[in-house]
Amino acid sequence: MARTAAQYVCQDCGALHGKWTGRCDGCGAWNSVVEEVPTEAVPKGLGAGRGQVVPFVPLDGVSADAPRRNSGIAEFDRVTGGGLVPGSGVLIGGDPGIGKSTLVLQVVGRMAASFPCAYISGEEAIDQVRMRAARLGLENAPVQLASATNVRDIMTTLDVDGGPAVVVIDSIQTMYVDALESAPGSVAQVRASAQELVRLAKRRGFTVLLVGHVTKEGAIAGPRVLEHMVDTVLYFEGERGHQFRLLRAIKNRYGPTDEIGVFEMTDSGLMEVANPSELFLAERRRNASGSAVFAGIEGTRPLLVEIQALVAPSALATPRRAVVGWDSARLAMVLAVLDARCGLSLAGRDVYLNVAGGLRIGEPAADLAVAGAILSAVGDRPAPEGTVMFGEIGLSGEVRGVGQTPQRLKEAAKLGFVRAMTPLDSARRPATEAGIEIREIVHLRDLLAPFGCDADTLGAIARPEEVH
Known about the structure:
Layout: E1 7-10, E2 16-17, E3 33-36, H1 74-80, E4 89-94, H2 100-111, E5 117-121, H3 126-135, E6 143-147, H4 151-158, E7 166-170, H5 187-204, E8 207-213, H6 225-229, E9 232-237, E10 244-252, E11 260-266, E12 269-272, H7 276-280, E13 291-298, E14 301-313, E15 321-324, H8 328-342, E16 349-355, H9 367-379, E17 387-389, E18 392-393, E19 399-400, H10 405-414, E20 419-422, H11 428-434, E21 437-440, H12 455-462, H13 464-467
Parallel strand pairs: 4-8, 4-9, 5-6, 5-7, 7-8, 13-17, 15-16, 17-20, 20-21
Antiparallel strand pairs: 1-2, 1-3, 9-10, 10-11, 11-12, 13-14, 14-16, 18-19
Helix pairs in contact: 10-11
């Protein structure tokens, strides 16, 4: 019998290599290529046998809506699209210590009152899980606990009639298939373990929650095919220095994507935040320069956050551009438009930008609020009282319209804001219904006067040696 040749697999992206190399050609990661011995050779073809005919059905057929199992945690149900679907696989990723195990334990602790639930830990002993449950006040929840890492044993336990309706695997990187020779956590083991567990979940009709680690780049550890195997991919994220945690849907076959759920980490576990806009603006100082309130949209939810900016003289040949919670390339674009179209040159100054509360914003509609915060810091004049901003900035300086204007204005009115700076094509009817005064910003130059950035201010900035 011919000897099976070894293959070298990247543990970050799953790319195959004919020999060991220090740097993966697929993703560019260093020291991530590991030797793996396949158990069997890949078949060369299908042979002469004939397969079965695949039946086709018309496109206009009627399909029933996917049933839901509510967790009792409104923020979690919002992100999943209304609850967990039987027979689905959910992958939850996040940084170490961010609260993934706490989240899934609270979910199954709530659901155990209505559905049989099982929690299988591959990282912690049963006593450690019990200690966490006691801290969360779930010590009396009827959750079945187990500590195991062998996928064959887990499948034998779950492949029975009357089994649990929801199963937590914490974490998928600790599971292993004994038919493979590679170590737990390798690409082959993670892929095979997830495939077997998801296949059993679809056959038996239970929901499997797979907890996954993330790499230092922020992606879920293991091959990208792992995200294709499951039906829903959730990221649990947040800043270590803040108590807020965000559960974000990246992929969802049974609900909307880019939906978020907001939680607050406390001594007794994760608490739901029913009104995140009010919480993100709770510590905002009024009449402070370098601050602007952005009315954004996260999934289907309007969200108001504070954007802070600081402009300071730089002693470096290349001034610093530090960004927390926003795209640094987008900040460079806004600064370039302010320089080329408005005459505001910050070439000799450091610019720091921060989204308060640990939230990360990826919406282009934040351009106008970022520009407002920078102009407020430059002119040392606070934004007009009770004002929110949103709008996308083009390279010629024009302010472009954005979607879901009524939801943004309604959320701003609910929190007591009385005026808004918006693009020209924003509908006035939603503003009238919300009771908000609209100031239309056609060009970025229209934003200079409200923040005191007149010709004298711009000239002083261009000649910083005259200021000192």
